[in-house]
Design brief:
Blueprint (H helix, E strand, L loop, with lengths): L1 E8 L2 E7 L9 E9 L2 H8 L8 E2 L2 E10 L11 E3 L10
Antiparallel strand pairs: 1-2, 1-4, 3-5, 5-6
């Protein structure tokens, strides 16, 4: 299991356990050590940006590559990584 910050309702987020996602051949699994709160996260929390409850929020993390897909090249497991403005990263 992994910890995830989840939007539950305007003004409320919770830290919950979620399953660690499987990775595909072009994916990387990053063990997050630090993340930021950006304007989008604040708007979601305030209810100003419409999202469904149970959405995992947070992006632009810093962490360590835990696992790489079979087709990923140029990276190695165990190396530190910054993931700026992550796309498709919040799959949990």
């Amino acid at each position: 299991m992994m910890k995830a910050t989840v939007f539950t309702a305007p003004g409320r987020i919770e830290l919950v356990d979620k399953p660690i996602p499987d990775i595909g051949p072009l994916d990387a699994l990053i063990r997050i050590t630090t993340t930021t709160i950006c304007g989008t996260d604040v708007h979601i929390l305030k209810g100003e940006y419409p999202v469904q409850p149970d959405l995992t929020i947070g992006h632009e993390p810093v962490g360590v590559i835990e696992k790489l897909g079979s087709a990923v090249q140029g990276y190695r497991e165990g190396s530190p990584r910054c993931v700026p403005a992550a796309r498709n990263a919040c799959v949990a």
